[in-house]
Known about the structure:
The complex is a heterodimer of chains A (407) and B (233). With 407 residues, chain A is α+β, with helices and mostly antiparallel strands. Chain A has helices spanning 2-12, 16-56, 66-69, 81-92, 126-132, 156-162, 197-202, 208-215, 233-247, 261-299, 301-309, 314-350, 372-399, 402-406, and strands spanning 59-63, 97-112, 115-124, 137-141, 151-155, 169-175, 181-193, 203-207, 222-227, 251-255, 352-354, 364-366. Chain A has two domains: 2-51 and 263-406, no CATH class; 65-249, no CATH class. Chain B has one domain (39-63, 81-231): P-loop containing nucleotide triphosphate hydrolases (Rossmann fold, 3-Layer(aba) Sandwich), CATH 3.40.50. Chain B has a six-stranded mixed beta sheet, with helices on both faces. In chain B, strands 2-1-4-5 form a four-stranded antiparallel beta sheet, with helices on one face. In chain B, a hairpin with a 2-residue loop joins strand 4 (67-72) and strand 5.
Amino acid sequence: MRLFLSLALRNVFRNRARTAVALLAIAAGCAALIVNGGVIYNIFRELREDAIHGRHGHIQIYGRGYSERHLLEPGRYLIPRADAVRAIAAVRALPHVVRATRRREFSGMISRGDRYVAFVGVGVEPEEDVEFSRHTTLRAGRGLSSEEPFGVIAGLGLAQKFGGAPDALLTLMTNTESGALNAVDASLRGVFEGGLKEYDDWTLKAPLPAVEQLILDDRTEQIVLLLDRTESVPAVMADLDALFRREGLDLEAKPWTELALFHNQVVSLFQRELDVIKLIISTIVILGIANTIGMSIVERRVELATLRALGLRPRIIGRLLMTEALLTGLIGGAIGVVLGVVIARAVSAVGIPFPSPPGATRPFLGGVDIVPGIVMFSFLLSVAATFAAAILPVWKAVRRPIAEALR
Amino acid sequence: MAPGPEYPLVRLDSVHRAYGAGAARFVALAGITLEIPAGEFVAVAGPSGSGKTTLLNLIGAIDFPTSGSVAIDGIDLTSLGEDRRAHLRLHRIGLIFQQFNLIPVLTAAENVEFPLLFRGGLGGTERRRIVDGALERVGLAGKRKRRPAELSGGEQQRVAVARALAGSPALVLADEPTANLDHETGAAVIGLMRELNRERGVTFLYATHDPDLVRLAARVITLRDGRLAGGSA
């Protein structure tokens, strides 16, 4: 069938000006899908990395039952210090695990002068936490240091509430598990921005030793893991499950995807938007190409009728025309892929200044990610749209009476 | 679809063909009955609008009579579905058109070869042998790689003759095959068809309104206003 394919290919380029317009339409649609998808994926990635490196890590480990019931019985699912140390040592030995650190959340009041402000505290290991806070921006002062156990950092919104600037002296107050009121004096080392307004309005980070002295408890609430790549999460989740059973650790693990609710909501919203854009672009390509293919078929009316008169069955004529449409789609899609990748690289080189997303605090310089899945999908959608566009004109062409078409 | 020897190659029985309806109704053929035995060289003569093209279209299984029957080898074409009609055209009928109707993006050889692709049972070597033989027979062996636009009108029509004959049809229908050629070239094309008729026993039926070309036929069917003139069948 070399001649059959050769004829189809030659027919595609028979009217070069019209073919160029058709290919441009398909390529533009394909490139638009690649670029639009790449921009949205870039935003997803920014949000994802914000969630992972600013707040949640890749995976969090708790005492078994914590996720379901810790609000009802806050103390019951905390991990004893010895177990936490043993678990961290075992977890760090797993493939893909780069960092593992302890955290303890608590809540209390900041007293500064005549101001009393509620906060949500996070006790962290300062040196380890640096890697978990790559997407946290220090707006003023310095970060946490184990050399200053009572030096804390506050979210931008929280610091504004109590009027704090670096080196300000604060008193942190909380209730211990037994219900007693306890307080420690601390100094504000710095002010950070984590990217999420709600987080920045309430969060205070402090070294774990200070927190343990404040709450009079050295148990760990969560062990947070950082992996070599986000894609390693499923593999490590499986390893953790086996590790807990093997080591007899009564622990549970949750991936970041189950913790980053804001990220999930935004992704869900944008995914819908992406679907609508795909539909719109596909419709534009189909309408544009249907017209071009229709014109091409009308012009070749006599030729197609001749082939039928010579004995070619309607379905062979249909196959020829659909092959031409397929080739047009493949060529247009391939051009679209090249065009899309070139545009993506050019735009990424310049950068797109985005305002802060809904609920977030920081604008960011985005780009266009070249995502193989999106590129492949855009290419296939372009081919499919071109193929679909040809169906009606081809169906009409092969049903036309031969004698009428020959006149 | 094996030919029945007891039947003429072509038989039309009370064939009517009308187009349109009401006041716009136009009768192209009105009650044609005729037979054409295998091996004849027949001219269909008549002025423009007399029904020559309609008659050839009906015999060529590319149009349907309004009433009456058209049979090839005793098989009533009106009883066949589109696929079987296409099969009949591919295997039993060769067509030559006034405008040559070659595929412009294919070379002369490819134009001749293309319909053979769909006959089944012919390998590439066999197809090439048939194509080369057909082009050689019409005197275009040296121009097999030329596209239609690179050939003269007479050469294009000879490619069309080669294409019609490559499938070894029993019947070749040529609708005004010389209308777009000068008189001398037209006569040469008809002469070629006549030679092929004698050599291979292929039945030729060609429409023309040129009296000189009519005279080259062994038999003449004359149409006037959709009817046979003077009982020429």
